[in-house]
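REQUEST ID: PR-0412
SUBMITTED BY: lab tech R.K.
PRIORITY: routine
TASK: structure prediction, single protein chain
INPUT:
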Amino acid sequence: PFYCPADKHVYIDLGFFRELQSRFGARGDFAQAYVIAHEFGHHVQNVLGVSADVRQQQQEDPDGANELSIKLELQADCLAGVWGHSAQQEGLLQPGDVEEGLNAAAAVGDDRIQQKSGRGVNPESWTHGSSEQRMAWFQKGFEKGDPSACDTFKGDI
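STATUS: complete
OUTPUT:
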């Protein structure tokens, strides 16, 4: 799945959800909802100008491009958590949903993906963050329920 800032659409390959379940063990409807909410987090970043700022910083500092990419992705994870908080407030979540989301966040961590592919884990090649980071930022957004808690660009990630 990916978000296209040019046309402001989220594109979803349904085969990804099958792979998320079969290869990475992330099952459940909320695992899928987390992925979609993450992509809509990128829309929020685009509308607010965060994505454009990051692209400009990456051009100015190519050596720091991966770290900026990770911060952008973790912010989208946090925004997915904020959406989850809202869904909980509306009574839309069922028991186990949050755990499904956390499991999906862990499943798509760069370290987990590299392990599953049989390659060694190389943090310098990461673009989305570790399983632990992705879970932590989703959890932070879920607990706080406030997008202002999702500033991954200040301090350590």
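NOTES: The chain has one domain: 2-150.
REVIEWED BY: pending
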